[in-house]
Amino acid sequence: MRSAVHAELGRPEDVLASQEMERPKPGPGQVLVRMVLAPIHNHDLMTIAGQYSFKPELPAVPGTEAVGIVEELGEGVTNFQVGQRIAGGARGTWAEYYLADAKRSVPVPDSVDDETACQLVSMPLSARMLLESLNLQEGEWVVQNAANGAVGKMLASYAAERGINVLGLVRRSQTVEELRAMGIDNVVATEEDGWQEKARAITGGAKVSRAIDSLAGDGPMQLLSVASNGAELISFGAMTQEPLKIPAGELLFRGITVKGFWAAQPPLKPERIGELLGELVQDAASGKLKLSIEAAYPIDQVADAARASGEPGRKGKIAIKGTATY
């Protein structure tokens, strides 16, 4: 089978190549899946570069999510059938065939397109799990930066369904208008003078008890400038690739607490995660949730795909496409 591989850590466009490999065999509780479409996520590229939380055993096949067709069942698997289309998190998905844990996969209804199905986990499920972990009640406020990112937009939408208020921070004024056109309000641009006063006017002086940071660097202090004393700062990402810059006084005198959220180890029970993923499939089946792919590259062009994924201004994910169709 054809697979994307990197034999060393480094810039993805430099170290990625394609090669022939032996097709894996499913073990107990696993299914062999013929890949249809696999998205390129930021954490995939960071892993290839050696900048993520773990270092893969080399040579490695990247990819952590996909949609595909069940080709073979491992011992003990009874919840899927050969020929069924499934989606979910997995390892080594940038290949014609990959192994998936049957308990972490879900069947995909015919009404859900491949573009949406292949990326149900990383962004939508992360947003749902993050919101769940905040333990906020109806009417309470949370502030987030990178509000125009995929997770930021989804979190605002899911929070609104629960009656939770989200104050969003973005960099440019133009982005505020773009989000408003999507039905996402309560957003301010940090490039504008007096943006903190605009933020406080939006909340009406209400307590802002949670702050979600996806930037690192100066991002936390922007959030904390509008968050309330005693607020909890959740580190969700590090787009700037800089350390968190938080003065000791924020912790000592304002009672700010800081914790991290990693979707690979969420503070939720596996059963609840499965329920949330099932709800996302239902949303996708009804047309409520639709995710786009800007371009899909064959495995032989994986380096070009990685390069395209790093280009700014994309309207959707870059993906790797397999030879399977459904």
Automatic annotation (TrEMBL):
Compositional bias segments (type: Basic and acidic residues): 8-25
Domain Enoyl reductase (ER): residue ranges: 10-320
SUPFAM superfamilies (alphabetical): GroES-like (SSF50129), NAD(P)-binding Rossmann-fold domains (SSF51735)
Transmembrane parts of this sequence: none
UniProt keyword terms in alphabetical order: NADP, Oxidoreductase
Region (Disordered) residue spans: 1-28
GO molecular function, one term: NADPH binding
Gene3D superfamilies named among the record's database cross-references: Medium-chain alcohol dehydrogenases, catalytic domain (3.90.180.10), NAD(P)-binding Rossmann-like Domain (3.40.50.720)
Pfam families, A to Z: ADH_N, ADH_zinc_N
Protein known as: Alcohol dehydrogenase
Originating species: Nitratireductor aestuarii
